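Tutorial handout. Part one gives the primary structure; part two gives the three-dimensional structure as C-alpha cells.
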Amino acid sequence: MANEQSRGALAAPERTEHPHIERVSGVCGGEPKIVGTRMAVWMIAEWCAQGASADEIAAMYPHLTAAQVHDALSYYYDHKEAIDAVRHENSEERWQPILGKK
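Part two.
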C-alpha cells in the first residue's frame, strides 16, 4: 500500500448517497464529483446558476449522461451550503483581487 501511494495511486472512492456522485482524495480537491470523471458537482451547479438547463449541460459535456447531470444537481440541492462555499472559493470574483486582475 505504501508503494502504491508513493507512486501516486489515488485513494479509494468514497461513495455518497447519490449513485453518480463520489469523492476521491486527490481528485477535484476531494470535492464531490461525478463518478468516473473529473467533473465536480460545483461546476455543474455553476452552469445551472448561469442559466443552463440539465440538458444543455449534458450537451456541453457529451461524456456525461442526463442522469449524471441530474444527480449532480440533486446532490447540490441536498448540500447547497457546502457546494456554494466551494463555488465561491473557485469564483472569478474571489480570485481577481488575489491575482491583481480587474
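Part three, for discussion. The longest strand covers residues 21-23. The chain has one domain: 11-99.
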